[in-house]
Amino acid sequence: MPRALPKKTPHRSCTTRFCHFALELKMEAFKEAWVDIDSEQRGKIETSEFVRYLQTKGHDDVFIDKWRQVFDADDAGEITLETYCDVLDIRPEELQSAKSLLNDVKYVSGDMPMDWQEKVVKVTKDVLAMPNLKLSDLSKQIKIALDRAYGNLWHVMVAYGQFSCYFGFQPGFSYIFKIGKQVFIVFKTPQT
């Protein structure tokens, strides 16, 4: 049975089944791409930067060329934030807020989509900003805040320096990141 197309109307130049399917599956990857490429927040990127980025991520030439044509339909050599967001049917604030929130965060490992990474980092930073917070309560307070905001069962560990861990988690809910010298290991398991 064919997969249903998303209900959103895509950008005018993105009318093929390929575009619909790719938009549905790759949204988070495209958000991450913009944030990575436009690290200086200029509001535009060179098409060649976009192509190089996709090549480093292992995409084939056919995929890259189709997306280059969608984002740079007039072959101007640059892609503006407005066009990028129009094609993906997202608000520019979604990309800009992700960049500022994650500025001092170093991704270590995980399979969590960017929108969830942002949520976890925001909760973590809110807890870190609590007055009189004891180091021994840090992971507990982050866990409690995540459980309250996003449902049970979150697990949080905080490490300094070298560490090793092995755990099971709900697919799409594992994120290991670093803020300053602290490493945060955050994951969710399904309720039974």
How does this model look, in words?
There is one protein chain. With 192 residues, the protein is α+β, with helices and mostly antiparallel strands. It folds into two domains: 17-96, Recoverin, domain 1 (Orthogonal Bundle), CATH 1.10.238.10; 104-188, Protein Inhibitor Of Neuronal Nitric Oxide Synthase. It has seven helices and six strands, in the order αβααβααβααβββ. The chain has helices spanning 17-37, 47-56, 61-71, 81-88, 92-101, 114-128, 138-150, and strands at 44-46, 78-80, 105-110, 154-160, 174-179, 182-188. A four-stranded antiparallel beta sheet has the order 3-5-6-4, covered by helices on one side. Strands 1-2 form a two-stranded antiparallel ribbon. A hairpin with a 2-residue loop joins strand 5 (174-179) and strand 6.
How many domain regions? 2
Strand content: 15-25%
Q: Quick one: how many beta strands? A: 6
Order of helices and strands: HEHHEHHEHHEEE
Rounded radius of gyration (Å): 19 Å
Give helix % range.
40-55%
N-end to C-end Cα span: 32 Å
CATH homologous superfamily name of the largest domain?
Answer: Protein Inhibitor Of Neuronal Nitric Oxide Synthase
The CATH architecture designation of the largest domain is 2-Layer Sandwich
State the name of the first-level CATH class of the largest domain.
Alpha Beta
What profile does the largest beta sheet have?
A: 4 strands, antiparallel
Instruction: Determine the oligomeric state from the structure.
Output: single chain
Protein name: EF-hand domain-containing protein
Domain EF-hand: 25-60
GO molecular function, one term: calcium ion binding
Pfam families: Dynein_light
